[in-house]
Every structure is written in structure tokens, then in C-alpha cells.
Amino acid sequence: MGKMPPDLREMLTELIAIPSVSSVDPALDQGNRAVVERLAEWLEGMGFACELQPVPDAPDKANLIATLGRGDGGLVLAGHTDTVPYDDTGWASDPFTLSERDGRLYGLGTSDMKSFLGLVLEAARGLKASDMKQPLVVLATADEESGMTGAKALVDAQRRIGRHAVIGEPTNLRPVYMHKGILMESIRIRGRSGHSSDPSLGCSALEGMVRVLNDIVAWRQQLQSKNADPRFSVPVPTLNLGHIHGGDNPNRICAHCELQIDIRPLPGMDLEELRETLRQRIGRVLGEEGLALELHSLFPGLPAMETPAEATIVRAAEALTGSQAEAVAFGTEGPYLRDLGMDVVILGPGDIAQAHQPDEFLAVNRLQPTVDMLRELIHRFCLTPAVEDGA
After folding, report:
1. Rounded alpha-carbon distances, angstroms, from residue 379 to 9, 75, 384
2. Phi, psi angle pair for 216, to nearest 5°
3. How many helices (H) and strands (E) does the chain have?
4. Mean pLDDT score of the chain, rounded to an integer?
5. In sequence order, what are the residues at sequence separation of 6 or more whose Cβ sits closer than 8 angstroms to the Cβ of residue 375?
6. pTM for the full predicted model
7. Sequence-distant (≥ 6) Cβ neighbours of residue 249 within 8 angstroms
8. Could you report the per-residue pLDDT of 242-273, keeping only the tens digit for each?
9. Class of residue 53 by CB neighbours under 10 A (exposed 0-12, middle 13-18, buried 19+)
């Protein structure tokens, strides 16, 4: 049996103090087991049944699934336990020490999003399994910031853990019911080097990339002319030319060139169709000029998410916050929970403007309203659920 969690400030202090950076750079990547094990200890002390689900091929990473009560429906309160890497030269205080200044709690993960998990535990304090008409599940995941392998492990295992879900990503306590997807693709062209004084001695990958760039910009215009959704503040899919590198010296014909792009598709746009269209277009524009093409996905991609506006969890979140559900451009683990049969709302106390920034903070005046809101959701979906809130 675990021990009861300390008071809220002590919980937040301890969660922030445990490093759990995830990164696509192996030199920066860390595990999250210390975080989920501490959460499990506290939740077991509150009567939750806790399971640690390992992430495949990552022995130092795991999801926590903590359940109070039984039933086929219920509420899932979810958050990721990892943070992005940090640049300590940009911080006014230690990123791993919770510091309060001017009504703000500073620390890595305060806004995005360890604090939400502490607030969930505070909201669940005092609940008893015998009082639950439908279960309350606390889900703490691994690796959201670097590939979402924790959420994918849930889907791969087909773990059906609830009917309604709230993911506490930073939304300024305004409910979000849809977001765009994400593709990040690398385009590599290989040519042949040679002395710059005679173009016939080589085949320029950089000149090939010029044609690719022009075609991608034209494709972006086509995508935006055919796809639009006014519910988003940026109503069209975006395509960002984010990184390019080619060649090594001005007097050598460029033999290698790489472009990396970011695409944010709208709901209804298929990731694999976009990848295939990209491949076909680039293949056509390069032709047969001795240039070799390699396309590589920088990560598997994240689908867009849309929860029906009339879903019970959406309506409940709107009623409790007094805000109409919105659409955002950033991605979450929502599509994976949706694939497990849940209606999903993104709703948390942080501010996305603070996420991934030095001196990340959470406003102190967000703490109690979040706890109060979570208690109301637990009451609505677990203690006094309507018939339609079940399976």
C-alpha cells in the first residue's frame, strides 16, 4: 500500500524536481519511471489500483494507469509526465526547483504539464471506490514530447480504460475539442560533386532542391485552396519550410541537400495520402537527371483530432468553464485516446505561450479553479453519472 500524497504544493514541488526530459536526441533523452512510480505510490495510498505499463524498447519509460472504482464508462484524467529539454542559461531560477514569484509558480513542467497531474490527485483526495458509480482513471503517459510512444503503447495493447477523457494540456482553462495533425518530413537529394568551373563534372543536388522547393510552395497553395475550416484561427492547413542544408563549399558542385518541412493538416486529411502525394510530386519534378531522392519521416506523424461538439464531455466542460469549446493548432495525445473509444477534451490550467519556454510558469490563481473544476467533472461522470455516460 502506498502512502497518502502530501499537500498540493509539496506534490508539485516533488513532481517538478524529478527530471523526465524526453527528446529525439539520445544524449538528452531521459526516462519517466521515477515520476510515474511516485504518482503510483500516492495514488495507491488513496485507494487506486495502479498498473505500470512499460513502453516497448524503453525500459526506463512507462505509462501509469490508476483506477478507482469499476464499470464500463467513467472518466479518464490524463497527462504526460515528460518535459521538453531546457536551456538553463535562459532560466532565472533552477528549472527543477518550484519557485514562486509574483503570483506564479516557475519550473520545468509547471504549465506543460506535470502540475495538472498533481491537481488531479488533489481533486481526487478523499474519494472512495465504494462511492464510484463509474470509475475514475488517472492516466500518466511517457514520451508525449518526442514521439508519443506511451499513448501508442496504449493503442497497441487496445487498453480500453474509460468513456470520457480530459487531457490537461495548457489551454488557459478553455476547452478544446479539435486540433490539427502534424507531419514532419525530411527530403534528401543526392547528386554528384565536381569542380564548380565545369557543371558537366557533377550534378547539383542544390539545383534539384530549388525545383522541389518551388513545387512544394505550389502544392501548399493547392492544399490551402481545397481545404479550409473556419473553426481554426488559422483556417487552412499549413506547410512550413523549416530547415535546409546543402553543400560544403562555394567552389564545389553540391552533392547532398536536405530539406525538412512541417505540415499541419486539418481533420479529415489523411497523413499517408499527404506523404504519398509529396513523394509523387517530388519524383516528377526531379525527373531522371541523375539525382537520387530519399524521403524520411522525422516521426510517425500525429493525426488531427475532432470530438463531436455535442459530446457529453464537451458540453460539461463548456458549462463548467463558461467557454465555448475551441480548435487549436498544436497536437496532443487526444487522437490515440479517441482510437480507444473515448470522447476527448483538452483542458488544462497552463498557457501554451509558456510551454517549451525558459522560465515556464503556472499562475497560482489557476490552482484552485482547476481543482474545483476537476471535482465537478468527477462528480458528474463518476459519482452521479447519467445512463448515457456509460459504455
Report:
1. 24, 10, 6
2. -65, -40
3. 9, 16
4. 94
5. 123
6. 0.90
7. none
8. 999 999 999 999 999 999 999 999 999 999 99
9. middle
Residue 246 to residue 251: CA distance in whole angstroms: 13
- Give the pairing type, strands 256-264 and 238-246: antiparallel
Interacting residues of 187 by C-beta distance below 8 A, sequence separation 6+: 209, 212, 258, 259, 260, 261, 278, 282, 293, 294, 295
Would you call 60 a catalytic residue per the annotation? no
Helix residue ranges per DSSP H, the chain: 8-17, 33-45, 114-124, 149-156, 205-226, 271-286, 312-321, 334-339, 367-378
Q: Is 183 exposed, middle or buried (0-12, 13-18, 19+ CB in 10 A)?
A: buried
Q: Which residues of 273-312 are buried (b: 16+ CB within 10 A; e: fewer)?
A: ebbeebeebbeebbeeeebebeeeebeebbbbbbbeeebb
C-alpha cell at 47: 485507494
Bridge partners, 83 (sequence order)? 21
**Of residues 112, 143, 144, 318, which has the active-site annotation?**
144
Catalytic residue status for 144: yes
54 grid coordinates:
512499460
Q: How far is CA 178 from CA 13, 64, 314, in A?
A: 32, 25, 11
Question: pLDDT tens across 298-351, in order?
Answer: 888 999 999 999 999 999 999 999 999 999 988 999 999 999 999 999 999 999
Question: DSSP per residue over 217-239, as a string?
Answer: HHHHHHHHHH---TTSSS-S-EE
Are 68 and 44 in contact by the 8 Å Cβ rule? The answer is no
Summarize pLDDT for 39-64 with one digit per residue, the tens: 999 999 999 999 999 999 899 999 99
Say which of 14, 82, 145, 318 is annotated catalytic: 82
End-to-end Cα spacing for the chain: 30
Sign of CA dihedral 143, 149, 153, 158: positive
Residue 83 main-chain phi, psi, to 5 deg: -125, 165
- Residue 47 has phi, psi (to 5 degrees) of 95, 5
pLDDT of amino acid 74: 93
Q: Report whether pLDDT(390) > 80.
A: no
